[in-house]
Protein: Mitochondrial arginine transporter BAC2
Amino acid sequence: MDFWPEFLASSWGREFMAGGLGGMAGIISGYPLDTLRIRQQSSNSGSALSILRRVVATEGPGALYRGMGAPLASVTFQNAMVFQIYAILSRAFDSSVSSTDPPAYKGVALAGVGTGALQSIMLSPVELVKIRLQLQNTSYPTLQLPRAHTGPVGVAKSILKTEGLRGLYRGFTITVLRDAPAHGFYFWTYEYMREQLHPGCRKSGQESLRTMLIAGGLAGVASWICCYPLDVVKTRVQAQSPSSPQKYNGIIDCLQKSVKHDGFGVLWRGLGTAVARAFVVNGAIFSAYEIALRCLFNNGNIQTENTIENNLDNT
Structure:
């Protein structure tokens, strides 16, 4: 009975909740664009707009949210851990800075790289299940899953049964290679841009909602641009299953065959959709996270609820 009050009274509990709310806001706001990105990457099926029209006409609007249960179910823990790991590592890489001062940009970047690598352990299986669900009813009929396995839990069980634990972690290496540098750019860009947009806010925590949205959105865009070719390769590797023809024998083989067959442009296919989604999603993530912290915390350098209300009014 006393678990939740005690949990929310702790720093860990409040940051955990804020991280979870931020992640949920990001997924719900950007999932349809993510579905379009995955379908663009997996095959040469046209522009995002043409895919959108075709999906809505043939499968219904709900198809844009297919597979969302997998990331949404895990996002509270995953996103909370990402922000917790980042906070710990940013101090560890810049221990000379006072606890009342923000970490240096070098510490921010290194902490982001470490965070990206560690969070891949949680993210890789979730994205595998999500991609398998998003690619149902595409031009690759062999990727369709049995009717009994249309939900994320059913798909995960099916993968474990037919491919084992190794199959559930298909694409883990490419996920680490993608996420480690991407998170370095992600956190560095957010911290740098929020300071440029609102000088002194890294220490005072007094930035407006507009600053959170723009800095978070630009952080997402920067992280995707730096890693996008690796994301295309990851999608193609994870889209394979035992029931479909094995096109690629690893990361290098996938990269070589993709470029040979579709040209270098294939490595940037769907980038426009990904960038649009990244701005929306990460603006929502950082805004929800920062606002939640200000509502849950009421001490130190973190704003009170009255301050955030004033910032909302000013925007």
Remarks:
- Confidence is low (pLDDT under 50) at residues 139-148, 299-312.
